[in-house]
Design a protein that fits this description.
Elements: E1 3-5, E2 28-32, E3 34-44, H1 52-63, E4 69-77, H2 80-84, H3 107-121, E5 126-131, E6 140-143, H4 148-155, E7 160-163, H5 171-175, E8 181-185, H6 192-207, E9 222-232, E10 238-239, E11 247-249, E12 266-270, E13 278-282, H7 289-292, E14 293-296, E15 299-302, E16 307-309, H8 315-320, E17 324-330, H9 332-337
Parallel strand pairs: 1-2, 3-4, 3-5, 5-8, 6-7, 7-9, 10-11
Antiparallel strand pairs: 2-4, 6-8, 9-13, 9-17, 11-12, 12-15, 14-15, 16-17
Helix pairs in contact: 1-6
The structure holds zinc ion.
Length: about 350
């Protein structure tokens, strides 16, 4: 399933994400040489509708057409088929950022094992996986380890850093066993500012000499820990504008992302007889919705202060992925000293 290249296929950089399928038969790994031998691994389009990563890396590679990269680079272009249709994934495909445990027998998981093996053999320097989201969110980096090199890499992108352990089948988690690794969230795909930010980040990471405990101190980081993934119950339908839906969310809930929401804030109207419409899975897979939410006179409210991220108004995303994540603030100094 994986095609490996040792240079950029002709015409590739001129392609929009929707056109990559004309040149690439499917998931592709492109190894490019650089002055420093250990490659920076960059992943784009794991979600076919999240185009910022591709637009950023093609602009960077354009700049190095006539000169050598400061560091070798291995570019992974993920879900080419879904990108053709501007979709997160196709109905007959798994979510390409939920397959990196790679324990199963699917062709996608075999492909994942091959990518990880290739990069381990090449002594990968660091890993960056570039994404977009749909709601109103700041740009932020995610880590799956509380360790200085991971924070150093994340801080190059943003002072807002999210630590999470679930879902545990994401690319950055698999790479965390091999090298410092981050997922970066660059806002909505249509925003040019996200492309420029990702471009700057890739340039900075390419210039890095090393990432270790001594190379630079980590400071000025707002660190959050994801404590639960919130989904709609399978038998419940949600909407923003349809009053007949089981759950009707307020039309501006995504403005609550990365804000501390005080207790008893109304989030959605819930039709009589539906009951608690949300499932909030903690890191151990236990449903803790009752710890955070309650129904009060037909309204869904939070019972304790919460800080959501990735709250979205896009009900397709809610069905395919989740409604939001809940986070708590972590003290960076305490985190690194323990
Ligand atoms: Zn994504």
């Amino acid at each position: 399933m994986l095609t490996i290249y040792e240079d950029v296929p002709s015409g590739l950089l001129q392609c929009e994400a929707t056109e990559l399928h004309r040149i690439l038969p499917g998931p592709s790994l492109i190894h490019l040489p650089g002055e420093r031998a250990d490659p920076l691994f960059i992943s784009v389009l794991l979600h076919g509708n999240e185009t910022t990563g591709w637009d950023a890396i093609r602009a960077v590679l354009e700049q190095y057409r006539e000169k050598t990269l400061p560091r070798a680079l291995s570019l992974f272009i993920g879900n080419v088929r879904a990108a053709r249709h501007s979709l997160r994934h196709l109905d007959d495909q798994p979510d390409f950022n939920r397959i990196w445990k790679a324990e199963g027998h699917s062709k996608e998981e075999a492909m994942v094992r091959q990518v990880l093996e290739e990069m381990r053999e090449r002594n990968v320097f660091a890993c960056i996986d570039i994404h977009n989201n749909t709601g109103h969110n700041p740009h932020y980096a995610c880590v799956n380890r509380l360790a200085t090199p991971f924070f150093q890499l994340a801080r190059l992108f943003s002072r807002t850093v999210v630590y999470f352990l679930k879902p545990d089948s994401v690319l950055s988690m698999a790479f965390a066993d091999i090298c410092p690794s981050v997922t970066v969230e660059c806002g909505k795909p249509v925003e040019q500012s996200g492309v420029l930010h990702a471009q700057d980040f890739i340039q900075s990471a390419l210039q890095l000499d090393h990432l270790d405990e001594q190379s630079m101190s980590v400071k000025d980081i707002d660190l959050f820990h994801t404590v639960a993934v919130v989904k709609l119950r399978h038998d419940v339908n949600g909407s923003i504008d349809d009053e007949s839906a089981h759950v009707q969310f307020l039309p501006d809930i995504d403005l609550m992302n990365f804000r501390e929401i005080i207790s008893n804030t109304q989030l959605a109207r819930v039709r009589h007889g539906v009951g608690m419409p949300l499932v909030a899975e903690n890191e151990f897979g236990k449903d803790v919705a009752d710890r955070y939410f309650e129904l009060s006179n037909g309204w869904l409210c939070n019972t304790t202060p919460v800080m959501p991220s990735m709250l979205t108004l896009d009900m397709d995303i809610v069905r395919q992925d989740c409604l939001c994540y809940l986070m708590e603030r972590l003290d960076l100094d305490k985190t690194l000293s323990t």
